[in-house]
Amino acid sequence: MPSGPVLYSSPALVIDAEFEAGNIGSVKRVGDTTYDLNIRPDPGSASSRLWFYFRVTNVVPKSALYVFNMLGFSKNRTSFSVGMTPIVRSSSKPKWEKIPTDQCFNYSSSRHRSQTSRPILSIVFRFDKKEDEYFFAFTYPYTHSMLQRYLSRLMQSSLTCVHRESLCHTLERRRVDMLLLSKGVKNSIPSRRDREREKDREREREKESARDTEKMMEEARSRERERAVREREKEGLHSSRRSSISALPPPLPLTPVLVRSAHSLASLSSARTAAQRRPHPIFMTTDGTGRPVPKRLVLVTARVHPGETPAAFVSHGLLEWLISPRPRAQALLERAVVVLVPMINPDGVHAGHYRCNSAGIDVNRRYDRPSTIQTPVAYHLSALVKQLGTGSLGHMDYLFDRMDALLREIGPLSHRVDREREREREKDAERRENRSSSRGGSRQDSDTESGVWGVGPHQNSLPSVNIGEPVLDERIKHIRDALRGCPLDLVVDLHSHSALEGGFVYVNPDNPERPSAEGERDAYRAAGLGDHGEPDSNNNRFQQELLFPRLLQNRCHVFQDSYQAPREVERDGGVSVGVSVG
Hints:
Blueprint lengths: L13 E3 L10 E3 L4 E5 L14 E5 L8 E6 L15 E4 L6 E2 L5 E4 L12 E6 L8 E4 L6 H13 L5 E8 L5 E7 L10 H43 L6 H7 L8 H22 L6 E3 L5 E3 L1 E7 L6 H14 L4 H9 E6 L4 H6 L24 H14 L14 H4 L11 H20 L7 H4 L27 H7 L4 E7 L10 E3 L12 H7 L13 H6 L1 H9 L7 E2 L2 H5 L5 E3 L3
Parallel strand pairs: 3-5, 15-16, 15-17
Antiparallel strand pairs: 1-4, 2-3, 4-10, 5-9, 6-7, 6-10, 8-9, 11-12, 12-16, 13-14, 18-20, 19-20
Helix pairs in contact: 2-4
């Protein structure tokens, strides 16, 4: 007897994710009130699946319990395994609420073993109003629209310590905001139209100065000619002044008059250059002796991974604290400039991705080889950091995750970069070139083979574009010029972990590579550690890097210092010394 369609007593729910930051893949009804929901992976990266955010309509209120089985997590261990639960809100109850722990189950399902080998999450829920729309999410969302609305309100306020700029635009033409926070910074940096007018005035001044200089030089030459004529007339070489002037071969050697003119021009040029190296007056402060000094510079970035929404709330809280009237915040803005980029990957946030941007690239793995086409935000941020680091003290002592490849190039330790690694890369490139030549020129792009788009070697991906050294965009060069001379002391990249509790910090040692079995002791010593990876109290570099974690330990009750080399960071090619919290 042929099997017909399954008949259910209740109407089917309508489940979708067609809204900002929404993410859900296929939906399958497997029972009267049971649904299997597969999380949609990031484009080109099947291993990036964790964030979900979906809407449910056409519900039957106060009926039987519904079960939603969330499938496709890319990790065996998530926050759900240590007690976290998803959140829910509805049209009539717009405030997000955590689903009770007795309604969420994280377990390995034998029934779903053919679909996934990893644990699944089952959510048991009862709806209360038929006309409501219900939203379920992995954790609290923080969208690009929320950020834009908040920043718009912030700039309309009477605060004078915030200046808003656009770092660049993404592949999908979304704005990437950059905030400058310091005392009195608002309206101190001229607008783009004012800058263009100032450039026009500067060009006119330069032309006028060039005309005055030419006139001054011509007058000096004329005086020299007249003096030479008088001297020759005394010797009786010529009979008339007019004939002697016409016979003189120009130009004459420089005399003290011309030398003094040249010196005055050189002094004017050097004075201009010195003025250009100084920060904007608003970014100057005084030291303990009352001497004017540049303010210290701190760069904070967040949300390079779209699914790590707690990082957005941390940066939001940091911004709220910095603009508050609290004495410590005011004292900090008196002596420092905080550059905040609150959302590096707005395209990924809008699309509901977990790690990648709209091109399927993990931007956090591209700071050492950014592209204006594939990763414009990484490109412009890299250029900005390098420009800000030039001419400063340059010791960016604290570092989160993978920006070490970028920052090692501009600090005072750049001369310690391992030349052996560079030579090995050159040899590998040469070997690949030889292999491609032996195949008759049918060579796949080497960047594609290594999976630089955040995908595996056999996934469909576009080739990487080699753009060379990042160049700062003309639209934000005025920021570079205003901050020129301010020492870049601290770089913080905010993330959130999908499984670990508490907080943790990764810092950048001198040698960020994982030590090999043969040279562990030398590698640990080069990183400022003892022979077995323990902190070395005699190493000043390491003690500097521990300052920030020690301050956190003393002032934050959830932070404990535990120094180790996390294996997952080593595997990802990150730093080899960590400060973590269990």
